[in-house]
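Structure ticket #2291
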Amino acid sequence: MRNFTMNGKNKIFGLNRAIFQTINVRQRKEALTWNKHFGQPTVMQKLRLPYLGNCYCKNYFSTSATSLQNTSNPFLQQIVESSKKRTIRKRIKPTETQEDTGQENKNKYNVLAYATAVEYDLEKLVNGFKKQGLYCPTSMKEENLEDVLHVSARYQVGRDPREIYLFREGAVVFWNFRELERENVLTFLKSFEEGSYDSELVLEESEALTVIEINGGTKTRMTNSGVIYLNTEDPADFEKYAFSNAIAQSVKLAIWESSLSSFIGKIEDITEDLKSSGKISLSRQDVLRKQGELFALRHSINLSSDLLDTPDFYWDRENLEPLYRSTYNYLNISKRTKVMNEKLSHCFDLIELISDKLTDKHHIRLEWMIIVLIMIEVLFEILHFIH
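Resolution: structure written out below.
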């Protein structure tokens, strides 16, 4: 760009706009995202385009490139022609309703859930939150919820409160938390996790629902579209817990689904070997390990969780059970659990087939060893008889 001389700022702006439209879709999307706190976007720095005030992209699209259409420079004409042929993808509105919709939806926010570890140490977490001083932990043992920790923010940001529900099985549910604060809390939780999951897997298998606060005689409920209507006139701690309980089970199930998918991917080569050559490349020790993985996964789904039945907590709380069941049904937990168990059964069948095959092979080897030993003994007896 420095080798070209142009008269007037409009021509420079038009050239920048034409060059900018030739960038691939991903770069354009990154360039359009202007960070007010850190200045110019990285894409602009790489392209070395001129700095225009407080923002790069604003002024490019406010000016026209018509001044370049009649230029005699073949390089500029090529840029203009290529920019005409490309179509710009429309930007998708962000899902963070509270952060981006402004005052019109001030009673609307998101609930996000993550499964970050096999288990949380809730007792140490209580002390950790107290030392940190930003959140107030509240135990729910009085309601026979020893495996749940309710945390509320000490400092108010906006009109709606910010709350967290932490479950001992390694799931956390955020109510009305912005992305930066959620990330800070997730980082804080790492010190109290046992068996942490991969960060990318945690983010990929998260769940998000929308909450709309209501007033008046309408009851708290969840619609078929997954929107939670929360009545703010009454205390909503247990209503939020009922929703959080089902969402936490969903993200935990998603982690197990991912683990099973990974396991199935690992045994695909075994089935191909059996199909093509009839040989097994695994040892008996490897087969035992895979059986252990399957048993651990089946135990977690069917015995250590409440995926198959409604928790005892809701038996004498008729107002909370419908909230839990509606969320449970919306997230399709029952069907997903059934599919998981069917897949586990097929995996067990394959592993048992391989185990039986290896066992038979081991038995045959032992039988031949016995036959050889008998033959050696007979040979010695014959030699002894001859002498």
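Closing remark: Residues 333-386 form the longest helix (54 residues).
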